[in-house]
Amino acid sequence: MSWVIEAFLFVVLVLFLIYKYITLKYDYFDVRDIPYEKPFLCFGNFKSLLFKTEAMFYTIRRLHEKFKDEKVYGIFEVRNPIISIRDPDLIKQITVKDFDHFVNHRQILSEHDDPLFGNSLFNMLDSKWKDMRSTLTPAFTGNKMRVMFEFVKECCEDSVNYLKKESLKNNPNEIELEMKDFFTRFTNDVIATSAFGIKVNSLNDKENEFYRMGRKITNFTGWVMLKFFLFSNFKAAMRFLRMKLFDPEQSEYFRRLVIDAMKYREVNGIIRPDMINMLMEARKNPEKSHNREWNDDEIVAQCFIFFLAGFETSSNAMCFAAHELMENRDIQEKLIEEIDDVREQLNGESISYETLNKMKYLDMVVSETLRKWPGALATDRVCVKPYVLKYDDRKLELDINDVCWVNISGLHYDPENFPDPEKFDPERFSDENKSNIKPYTYLPFGVGPRNCIGNRFALMECKAALYYLLSEFTFDVGKKTSIPLILDEVGFQLKPKKGFWLKLTPRQKISI
To answer: How many other CB atoms are there within 10 angstroms of residue 66's CB atom?
Structure first.
């Protein structure tokens, strides 16, 4: 019987040591006299994410509202203390003015933990990040956007033609679609051609390998979400166990895709205006990338992170835009009026990149969509050298590796920044009104030198999709449409429980 008691005592001891390890930093904000959200046992302030009781979108908005009278407040991500910066002037100070003290994001995964995510621009640190950012920046200039817009247009035309054929099968011609599936296939095809240089049509060939692998690797639920959580909080243990975030088969697929494409192009002298070609040029001419010689893993990782961001984030933005236009019929009609005016001026010609960017109301609709449903709910910065944050009559001393957080969703829903924030109102971004938006309160693509490098591409892609779809269809309430949207509590991704179901109604009789 004594062995049972000894085993019980051993388990108790282990659990006690785990508890002490997790709660070791729970006095962080008390010592610094910073108001903070009390952690729940050893789960920090995000127990709702772990127990699936509240979508993270609402959790971080609630935190922002709770500390509405504070410029700085504290939260815990399980055992990790995070300093949340609420004041726009302090956000500017940390992310722009004193950027040299806050160059990095948190590196949850290093290149040793996962070659794809760990070597990506988002995860790179210090001078290595700076050099890769400089290497990739030319891929997103206006001239490159004009070239890639032709790829996007081709995918838009393929998607509209698919919808027309599908609608002809019905009487009346209207069709009900789960828009997340539709837009993910669309963005998949856009990324395939503009980043990887391959042509796929995921609406007609629904089980093509590129799309199938993309769906697997962007599924941040279940086991993948748990591994991400464990890497965030128990990195040493995960390294000891040699765990990887992504399945080796999926990682190897993207690696092979990029490496084989580079070899084929080099042998056959193929030059194509896409990301792979630009990275090949950087490898051939190291002086263009600050004399760095990027290895295969680093090159593949940049194509991969572009895929990851475009596949999920861009398709989400399109889904929310379509849903808001369906719910707000007057706004949809006004946007269609602008689209029809542009089409009339084009007189049968296809739209150009310049003309798309001049469509003011389309820009207003997309901007308001990204305010209400931002792709990134928050962004972070890591202190890389000792720093004193001064505000009011306070001096908050930050040490190396202290983490600062900007609550993007909280800022976007703060009534002091955007009155009546639950209302979908594109007029906030009209020429007359957008100057009233407080600087550093609208951050859909992050902020400062470490903002999203692909924001121009994402905006172009979203606008083009809406332009082409609303040229032929209207977004209407279907039998499966959810009003209002109820967000899923599972995972980090912003998505509704019952999907994005809409009815697409042809604006005129369809003939192909």
So the answer is: 13
3-class DSSP assignment, residue 309: helix
Cα angle value 377/180/122 (rounded, 5°): 40
**Contact between residue 310 and residue 454 where contact means Cβ atoms under 8 Å apart:** yes
pLDDT one-digit tens code per residue, 470-500: 999 999 999 999 999 988 887 667 889 889 9
- The continuous run of DSSP H or E covering 173 comes out as none
Strand partners, 472: none
**Helix H or strand E encompassing 84:** strand 80-85
- pTM (global) more than 0.85: yes
Angle between helices 329-346 and 315-327 (to 10 degrees): 110
Instruction: Report which DSSP code applies to 141.
Output: S
Q: Which residues pair with 72 in a beta bridge?
A: 85
Distance separating the N- and C-terminal Cα atoms of the chain: 81
CA 218, CA 231: separation in Å to the nearest integer?
17
3-class secondary structure per residue, 380-440? EEECCCCEEEEECCEEEEECCCCEEEECHHHHHCCCCCCCCCCCCCHHHHCCCCHHHCCCC
**Encoded tokens for 398:** 């930050």
Among 238, 244, 190, smallest CA distance to 214 is for 190
Tell whether the torsion through CA atoms of 338, 343, 344 and 346 is positive or negative.
positive
- Per-residue pLDDT for 511 more than 80? no
Q: Of 142 and 320, which is predicted with more confidence?
A: 320
Asked whether 488 and 57 are in contact (CB, 8 A), the reply is no
Cβ(115)–Cβ(297) under 8 Å?
A: yes
Return the SS3 of 508.
coil
Lowest-confidence region among 6-15, 184-193, 319-328, 401-410: 6-15
pLDDT score for 491: 66
By the 10 Å C-beta count (0-12 exposed, 13-18 middle, 19+ buried), 70 is classed as middle
In terms of Cα–Cα distance, which of 191, 449, 469, 209 is closest to 325? 469
Closest Cα to residue 489, out of 58, 66, 43?
58
Q: If 0-12 CB within 10 Å is exposed, 13-18 middle and 19+ buried, where does residue 440 land?
A: buried
